[in-house]
Amino acid sequence: MKLVMKIMQVAFCLLFLFAASGCKSPVPQMQPKNSGQVLYTVTDATGTELKFYEKPQRIVSLNVSVDEILLDLVDSKRIAALSAMADDANLCNAAAKAKVVKGRVNTTNIEGILAMQPDLVVIPDYSMTPVNAMRNAGLKVYICSTPDSLQGIYSFMESIGSAVGEPERGKAMTNGMQERLDAIRNKVVANVPENKRLKVLGMSFMGPMGMKGTFNDVCYYSGVRNALDGVDVPPQSTLSEEKMLELDPDMIITPSWDYSKEGDPEKFRQKILNNPLYKNIKAIKTGKVVMLHDNYLLCTSQYTVKAAEEMAQAAYPELFK
User: Fold this and answer.
1) Distances from the Cα of 134 to the Cαs of 49, 58, 108, in angstroms?
2) Side-chain-side CA neighbours of residue 214 (13 Å)
3) Higher model confidence: residue 123 or residue 21?
4) How far apart are CA 266 and CA 268, in angstroms?
């Protein structure tokens, strides 16, 4: 008897819904996520091919530069989680923007990543340890090449754009970067003769910065000459006092932050300014020992433009009043 009553109740509900719909055709059922039709395919830095049946809607980032790129590349609602460093303004240039995304993850917590139920995880190739574990858990992981030049940053950004189904947007971001960089260089070139362009030495807590690579590219677009361009100085080495005198830079850039939290940026700067052996170096004579933002100089995203802007403004303040 109870079963009969249940059937009658269900039938009555269906009849009511049919009448309320104005006898229209039933609402079509939503298609399953994997409809069988591939929307796009990408190949990551390891040669792994990933097929997408729709644009990912729960993206997880495991890198600060990827955080910065994604926050300008896609609607924040499509980002399930950012890297654990996303809220540190000393590291992440998009720390303020990152607040709209609640999730945070790191590479050592696979369970935390799984809990986000991502449909795409983006990770750079320098952090490969968790990749197998994530893939074995059924996650779709896109590995991108870590850039070491401006062109590499462009490829990095465009590859992430392709992975999330926004290749045109990724390309537009790199085009926008190039336009801004060209504008900086053109302004300097138009107003500062080549023989008057400053020679710049970049310093970090680990040693001198780049005789090639991204720092050298930033120098080029800032209209300055990299003091180490063509000079054989190994990375993370110590410049001897003799070498400093030989280089004789017009401007010295010092770090604004120390990853180890042990170094004091202002003490580092003062140590260079007050070294009696450096008193005849041009940068010391003119006081052009400047602290620029490491989060711009060391990033591998669209914020590299800000490094060039800061460097050009420090070198030629009269042009950027």
Assistant:
1) 16, 15, 11
2) 22
3) 123
4) 5
Axis-axis angle for helices 64-73, 167-191 (nearest 10)? 100
pTM over cut 0.90: no
Residue 182's alpha-carbon distances to 128, 223, 295, in angstroms, are: 35, 10, 21
Task: Report residue 80 as tokens.
Answer: 């399930």
Using the structure block, give the residue that is written with the tokens 């300008």: 72
How many angstroms separate the CA atoms of 205 and 118, rounded?
A: 37
What band does 35 get if pLDDT is binned at 50, 70 and 90? low
Encoded tokens for 135:
């893939």
8 A C-beta contact, residue 191 and residue 239: no
Strand, helix or coil at 179? Answer: helix
At 313, which helix (H) or strand (E)?
helix 304-315
Alpha-carbon span 217 to 159, nearest angstrom = 20
- C-alpha 270/C-alpha 287 separation (Å) is 11
Give per-residue pLDDT as tens, 134-187: 999 999 999 999 999 999 999 999 999 999 999 999 999 999 999 999 999 999
**Does the pLDDT value for residue 131 go beyond 80?**
yes
Residue whose tokens read 């896609």? 74
CB atoms near residue 159 (< 10 Å): 22
Looking at the DSSP bridge assignments, the partners of residue 290 are 253
Rounded to whole angstroms, the Cα distance separating 110 from 251 reads 45
Q: At what angle do helices 150-163 and 214-222 cross, to 10 degrees?
A: 110
HSE-up (13 A, CA, CB side) for residue 71: 25
- Are 102 and 115 a contacting pair, CB within 8 Å? no
User: Identity (one letter) of the amino acid at 302?
Assistant: Q
